[in-house]
Amino acid sequence: ETGVTQSPTHLIKTRGQQVTLRCSSQSGHNTVSWYQQALGQGPQFIFQYYREEENGRGNFPPRFSGLQFPNYSSELNVNALELDDSALYLCASSHPGRDRGASGANVLTFGAGSRLTVL
Amino acid sequence: GESVGLHLPTLSVQEGDNSIINCAYSNSASDYFIWYKQESGKGPQFIIDIRSNMDKRQGQRVTVLLNKTVKHLSLQIAATQPGDSAVYFCAPITGGGNKLTFGTGTQLKVEL
Q: Which residues of A are less than 8 Å from B101 in CB distance?
């Protein structure tokens, strides 16, 4: 098991630019979710992908978009970057039918994140 | 909507003492509650979960208590160790799926 890997680990962009963040899911995981974590805050749900389709979205504008590939890896794209987009972006993968806690909750495996700074 | 609050943003304990981290939630329809631990420079890591029809669950050195009447849960860590230093989040889950609602978190600092 290699876990969830994300790239790049750090990057700096300027306002108005576009960014693509990448995530490799843990082996066997077919669902991927993206979260935004501002400094000193908890992660906020952006969206979830299952079988290459978005099947859940949080309160984020359309300039946040994503893709999931046949190998279950994923991308997060953010267009027209704003200063408030500066955050740690976390990818989490899961296999809802298999990875559950002892009480039955679906367990997510998070990557270490991509730290985006928008200047 | 869902809101999650934590009573203490920072908790300092002596090594070997017990720690209690509290969490309030607003959605009475939450099906599960999960505690995650986030160490510096890492993503959140699953600790323990509890279903809404339970009031207590025990794991290795950790105990979760759930009080649905007042919409409150707590994470108790026995014999706190330096490796327990991290930010702790409770995350309710409603309707299954992967949408976790995290609060601000509680920073646990273990003093030697």
A: 45
- Digit-coded pLDDT (tens) for B61-107: 999 999 999 999 999 999 999 999 999 999 998 766 668 889 889 99
DSSP B40: T
Supply A11's token pair: 């990057």
**A 60-89: CB under 8 A from B:** none
Chain B residue with minimum CA distance to A4: B43
Q: What residue has token string 């952006």?
A: A46
B2 touches chain A (CB under 8 A): no
Q: Where are the beta strands (DSSP E) in chain A?
A: 5-7, 10-13, 19-24, 31-37, 44-50, 53-57, 64-68, 74-78, 87-94, 109-110, 114-118
Task: Return the residue matching tokens 């420079």.
Answer: B41
- For residue B55, the one-letter residue type is D
Contact residues for B25 (Cβ-Cβ < 8 A; gap 6+): B2, B3, B4, B5, B33, B71, B72, B73, B90, B92
State which amino acid sits at residue B40. S
In this complex, the residue of A41, A45, A103 whose CB is nearest that of residue B49 is A103
pLDDT of residue A89: 98
